[in-house]
TrEMBL record:
Species this protein is from: Eleusine coracana subsp. coracana
Transmembrane feature ranges: 43-63, 75-93
Upper classification of the organism: Eukaryota, Viridiplantae, Streptophyta, Embryophyta, Tracheophyta
GO biological processes: positive regulation of organ growth; response to hormone
GO cellular component assignments: endoplasmic reticulum; membrane; nucleus
Keywords on record: Cytoplasm, Developmental protein, Endoplasmic reticulum, Membrane, Nucleus, Transmembrane, Transmembrane helix
Membrane-protein topology: Multi-pass membrane protein
InterPro entries: ARGOS/ARL/OSR1
Protein name, as recorded: ARGOS-like protein
Similarity section: Belongs to the plant organ size related (OSR) protein family.
Length: 105
C-alpha cells in the first residue's frame, strides 16, 4: 500500500511558469524584430537611399574643397547662448500644478 499512496509525477522535470513565459516573450521579441527588419528594409526606396548617400558624401567632401567662410557677425553668435539660458530658466521655473489642465488630477 505504500506505493498506492504516493503520487507520481507525469513529467519528471516540469517547466517552470516563469521559464515558459520567458520563452514566449523571447519568441515574440524575435518575431517583432523580424517584422521591424522587413519594415525598415522597405522604408527607404532606392532613390531615397541614393539621395541620402549623395548628401552624406557632399557633406564630407565639400568642406574640404570649398574655401573657408568668413566668421558670422558677433550678434549672431549670442543666439545659441540666449537659447540655452532661456531653456535653463524654463526648466527650473516652478509651476503651479493646480492651474495645469490635465485629466488625471
Amino acid at each position: 500500500m505504500e506505493g498506492g499512496n504516493r503520487r507520481h509525477r507525469r513529467n519528471p522535470a516540469p517547466i517552470r511558469p516563469n521559464a515558459a513565459k520567458l520563452h514566449l516573450q523571447q519568441q515574440q521579441q524575435e518575431a517583432d524584430f523580424n517584422d521591424k527588419k522587413v519594415i525598415a528594409s522597405t522604408y527607404f526606396s532606392i532613390g531615397a537611399f541614393l539621395v541620402l548617400a549623395c548628401l552624406t558624401v557632399s557633406l564630407l567632401i565639400l568642406p574640404l574643397v570649398l574655401p573657408p567662410l568668413p566668421p558670422p557677425p558677433s550678434l549672431l553668435l549670442w543666439l545659441p547662448v540666449c537659447l540655452l539660458i532661456l531653456l535653463i530658466v524654463l526648466a527650473f521655473m516652478p509651476t503651479d500644478v493646480r492651474n495645469m489642465a490635465s485629466s488625471y488630477l
